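The protein record filed below.
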Amino acid sequence: MDNALWHEWWPWVAAAVGLGILEMLVPGYIFLGFAVGAAMIGFVLAFGGTGLSVPVLLVLFALASLVAYLVMRKVFGLRTGQVKIWDRDINE
């Protein structure tokens, strides 16, 4: 297996764009965290992080994705004490 592609910036950015498009098709802020993580790794590799090994890149990707997901959950999630109340049935 050739690891040269893992150390390029453009596959990470392409994966970020693909995951962003997938998020538009399946909303719920599931894939957007992964898209942000991939974009951050692409940014790191584009601006000087070429000496990182593949396991380090994958750990950084996982951590960046987790942080992005937790931030989006905090920003876009239900507020504390807020409960969604249904006042009408879909079958009415």
